[in-house]
Amino acid sequence: MESLFSYYPPAVWIALLATGVLIGLLAGLLGVGGGVVAVPILLEIFEFMGIPASLAVSLAVGTAQASILIASTTAAAAHWRAGTIDRELVRSWLPALMVGAMIGLAVAPFAPAWALTGLFAVIAAALAIKMAAGDRLIIGHQQPQGPLALMPPTLVGGLAAAVGVGGGTLSTPVLTLFSFSIKRAIGAGALFNLVIAVPATLVFLFMDLGTPGRPADALGDVALFCVATLSLPALFVAPIAARWSSRAPVSLLRRLFAFCLAVIAVRLLLR
What we know:
Layout: H1 2-7, H2 10-30, H3 35-48, H4 53-82, H5 87-107, H6 113-133, H7 151-163, H8 168-176, H9 182-205, E1 218-219, E2 222-223, H10 224-247, H11 250-270
């Protein structure tokens, strides 16, 4: 414990705990994976601690995915109890979402980071406009049928896994393009976060094992102390935020989601 106190200064503890609270709020209230918050914060922390940039990116993404896995567990359970998870939607999306996630995890190490983040920023900005416009901007009144039905979950799973964010960050606005209820989409998104985080965390736990320059508590590309510090507040906050989500006005949820996506897009483009 003394080594952790000396390796991670108090300012880092405070930053991680505060980020954990925000992860819990996003996971519970909007079904958004905390990676969009955790990855930039972890990059700043690892840079502050002197970890080389070449190591910090994969370490930040892996640590964020493990944190999403833990936070999403309580968020998804709370949405399940509240009845805001559409089981039919989950059954129809789950296979393609998992295939997309595996493709994203396989492709990400070979794709330029600027290309992935730029693509995600553009998509996030477009979806923010859609969420702000509400029902005035839709593609159809039902989801695609036949082979076309596999495209949205596959793309969501692939992009979310590749850039280290939760599936709900993209699945919710995509579903609303087809007139899907935002509350049901948020509930499903909380579960999709969990589905993508499981294989992603397993992959990052076995990446770069034994590579020098990482924190002493790192297992592969997952900094275990950071995961614990991020997850502890999220575990308590996510269920409370999920209950708020089930009662909040639809217009408020839509505006909050649009604002969140816009901030994500701007942050990624600036970085």
